[in-house]
Structure formats: structure tokens, C-alpha cells
Amino acid sequence: MIGFTHYLMLAALMFTIGVIGVLIRRNLIVIFMSIELMLNSVNLALVSVSKYIQNVDGQIFVFFVITVAAAEAAVGLAIIISLFRLKQSMHIDEMNELKG
After folding, report:
1. Residues in contact with 73: Cβ distance below 8 Å, sequence separation at least 6, in sequence order
2. What pLDDT is recorded for position 34?
3. Does the pLDDT of residue 98 top 70, yes or no?
4. Confidence (pTM)
5. DSSP code string of 10-74
6. 91 φ, ψ to 5°?
7. Residue 13: pLDDT over 70
8. pLDDT for 31-68, tens place per residue?
9. What is the rounded distance in angstroms from the CA atom of residue 20 to the CA atom of residue 41?
10. Which residues pair with 59 in a beta bridge?
């Protein structure tokens, strides 16, 4: 049987993979996907803790996190598309200019 600690270990592993992806990779899409993976790992942890303590507040909060993640995905992809049109690259090291 899969227990509470298994879910938390999976969430911690997913979060660690996301952090490593943000720190190591230089492609904007991969960084964006790593951030989404980190958000999903937090959602998994919230749902598992909520189920463990027999309270639905964590599960309700996950719906709000998913809503914010969807809005963040829309805005993030729009920014990535506009940066790609401007620089013709998705490599983060080539995007070093700040214009006002």
C-alpha cells in the first residue's frame, strides 16, 4: 500500500528535479516547465497532507494554486514568445539587455 511518506517523497523528488532544471538549464521553455513541475509537486504535497489529516482545506487550496498556475502559464508563454520573436533564440544567456 502506498502511504503518506511515499507521496511526500515523490513530491520532494519532483520539487528537487524542478529546482535542478531551473538552476542547470539555459532554455526558457525548459526553465518554464521546471517551474511548473515545482508547482505540481507542491500540489501533490498539499493533497497528500490534506488526505492524511482528513481535512479538505488543502485540496481546496490546490484548486487556487492550479488557477494561478494556469494564469502564470498563459503570461509566461506570451513573454517567451515575444522574447523569441525579438531575439530569435530561447537561450537565456543571449537575453542580457534591459531596455526601458
Report:
1. 32, 36
2. 97
3. no
4. 0.88
5. HHHHHHHHHHHHHHH--BHHHHHHHHHHHHHHHHHHHHHHHHHTT-SHHHHHHHHHHHHHHHHHH
6. -80, 130
7. yes
8. 999 999 999 999 999 999 999 999 999 999 999 999 99
9. 14
10. none
Mean model confidence pLDDT for the chain = 92
Cell of 91: 537561450
Q: Does domain 4-90 have CATH number 3.30.230.80?
A: no
Contact assessment for residue 80 and residue 30, using Cβ atoms and an 8 Å cutoff: no
Distance of CA 98 to the CA centre of its chain: 25
Nearest-angstrom CA–CA distance, 30 and 18: 10
Give dist(CA 89, CA 70) in Å, integer: 24
> Residue 54, Cβ neighbours under 10 Å: how many?
6
